[in-house]
Amino acid sequence: MRQEQVQQAQQGHEASELAAVQRILHVHENEPGALLPILHDVQDALGYIPAHAVPVIAEAQNLSRAEVHGVVTYYHHFRSAPAGRHVIQICRAEACQSMGADALLAHAELRLGCSAHGTTKDGAFTLEPAFCLGLCASSPAMTLDDQPHARMTPRTFDALVAQVNP
Q: What is the pTM of this model?
């Protein structure tokens, strides 16, 4: 009985997500070449691009599922799984790399226990590389839940993480 309830809840969740996708598709229905705006809107609404939405988007845009999947997987911005409660992006651009971003990313991976593009086991954090956060003069830089932080060190990283996840 319990497994049946979980399955029904999951089906309800998928139906809710697909309804949101349909609303987004309706907004863009007369817009030529709207795949990227659609994907951005779906990610903004749901936090990721669910696999079960790909065929629906493909059909609405007269594209193959492979074409839509290719766009989702090509751009690092799009997620195919839900993010953690907090999203950390560490800049990987040249200025930040020259100021220690590689060491900062390595520290973040060790501290969080997940690799870049990963989410911690408890779902608290998703760690993502970013390519230029626009804080080149104050590198290395990162964002935590879209809030920029500059001149990061392992110590300041740990303090920020502790503030949001005591």
A: 0.76
